[in-house]
């Protein structure tokens, strides 16, 4: 059920003012963060890019929640990553970390005692250690190989100084790190789909080749075939069209229900397929995103309900509008 809004106009306005003030404080913190980013961030990017292993994110408290999210974002954008809780590291989870990895710790104070065993482990085995912190000169800052500093900024909550602005800046730094790394790695939308096969996002990132009908399901007739044969092919395959190919299997044109109506006359069934076909039909690469196939079918004129997928000049598949509906894209 929906809860009613308080009738007290003064209280309503006070709530809005306080919320907007908190958001503005955090926004100012992000602005300061963008302005103060320096070579340490670049060094972290290059360290991670060179590492043969994973990025291990760690933290305690609110920083742990941020670290877990950053690890998930990195992993989903092509940078192998995992989260190890700072408190669990010294109780056996250190075994998850190898000398091929890079450790990135998150700690506003840089004095989180639970993270010290992890820092010592990195020093002992020569594992690169990076730190996000507001206090670069802290104990953990002194132990780290790279320190990405958070600029001085007030927390949004002035009553308790609960982590708000600081965790927002850490989250933004993690997102920035993921974006820079994915661009350096040449990560593409199709690669992103590999890690996101489910949901609306997964559907939007499917490729034509992953959905198209191929092989015996592909409606095709030879150029010299009769229109009667073309109609049988259209009926049996159920796409409302058939491709017309030459002796090499290259696509010459397409026959649709509209083409048949336009050529309706005595002797139509005896004519050859290439006599009634539409040349230069709309086609798409099998490597293209399914969302692009949907766009071409529904927004370009004339609208079509099916489109052939090509490998060069040869049709290798066909996608129908219903296929987009089936996977939840349309």
Please characterize this protein's 3D structure.
There is one protein chain. This protein is of the alpha/beta class and 330 residues long. 45% of the residues lie in helices and 16% in strands. The strands form three sheets. It has a five-stranded parallel sheet with strand order 2-1-3-4-5, sandwiched between helices. Helix 3 links the parallel strand 1 and strand 2. Helix 2 packs across helix 7 and helix 3 runs parallel beside helix 7. The longest helix is centred in the N-terminal third of the chain and has 28 residues. The chain is elongated. It starts with 8 loop residues before the first helix and ends with a helix. The model has no long low-confidence stretch (mean pLDDT 90).
Helix share, percent:
40-55%
Span from first to last CA?
A: 31 Å
Structure summary, number of beta strands:
12
Mean pLDDT: 90
Order of helices and strands: HHEHEHEHEHEHHHHEHEEHHEEHEEH
Biggest sheet statistics: 5 strands, parallel
How many helical elements?
A: 15
Proportion of β residues? 15-25%
Query: What oligomeric arrangement do these chains adopt?
Result: single chain
Computed Rg:
29 Å
